[in-house]
Amino acid sequence: MKRTSKAASSKGSSKPKKASAAPAATSAPKASVELSSIRERIDGIDQRIHDLLNERARFAQQVGESKRGEGMSTADFYKPEREAQVLRNAIERNKGPLRNDEIVRLFREIMSACLAQQEPLKIAFLGPEGTFSQQAVLKHFGHSVRALPLPAISEVFEEVQAGHADFGVVPIENSTEGTVNHTLDMFLNSPLKICGEIELRIRQHLMGRMKGLQKIARVCSHPQSLAQCRQWLDEHLPNIERVPVSSNAEAARRARDEDGTAAIAGEAAAEVYNLGVIVPEIEDTADNTTRFLVVGRKLFSASGQDKTTLLVSAGDTQSPGALHRLLGPLAANDITMTRIESRPSRKRKWDYVFFIDVIGHAEQPPLSTALEELRKASTLFRVLGSYPAAVL
Fold first, then answer.
1. Overall domain count for the chain
2. Torsion angle of the four alpha carbons 273, 279, 283, 285, in this order, in degrees rounded to the nearest 10
3. Domain containing 257: what range?
4. What is the pLDDT of residues 318-349, one digit of tens each?
């Protein structure tokens, strides 16, 4: 009887264990069903997105066929003012959770892929591969273009002017180190126009094949990048040789091939030349940004938020009030000037020209009114470009 009682008791004691295990067994399938349902909904959304992308691409093809029928070239298909409007609209309607910069990047790639349906744009830039100029090309034009690296800013201008490239991308100024004078000087004799601007946040990384700072014998980089990291280098590598080279990509190549050489460059250079990042983001200022210009062969229409770049001279810049006469029409018409640079005219000693950036489009008042007055006050007057202000 006792054995029977024990057996009964044992069976009875096992029932609560089975009962307690039951909820865990039923909860897992429920969570799995919910996850499966969410994935099915995502798949459905992906299908709709895919269908809409192809529909957009078909419309882009129709636009391209229409323009080709009118005898237009590939470069004529690109409308920077229209692209800027699309991106601004995307930002305006963005409710999250995707950030504005992510939305802009996605729409930029969609437009890039659609534009390349006929033939990819050819974009010349200051190379080689792995430079910040290449990053600027991809940020502005997307990845569906043919990027053409060139060894000098002058060659970028020459390739675009000759029609071998549709557009070019060149650096114009850095928020820490100021103007790239070579780019400004190219406009003195070039017929090319400014078609756009790009603002690129610059993150400088110390990279090389070594694991730490102890085995670094020299640091190579473009002079601008060395200057942008001067304080960090003074503090962490004060006695190490600093070697200026033609580009950050060249610095990365040397770091790959030379023992003891480290480079300062962007993340793309580390990937291209298979280098490890020893110390990330060593730039001296947290908002270090470089502005690039897009150069092409013609002017474009207004986008609604534009800048205009002028090249002007008052003749004898040594005479009293010469600069005031140039700036007076801008002030009188409430035009905002964002930048002014003087450069030697190269015609005679101590003779200067002025590069001026203002807000507005040259064909729209009040700027058009101000420019007509400025033309009369100038001995040299050229509109180098009216173009959409950088979107993010």
1. 3
2. 150
3. 205-279
4. 677 888 889 999 999 999 999 999 999 888 88
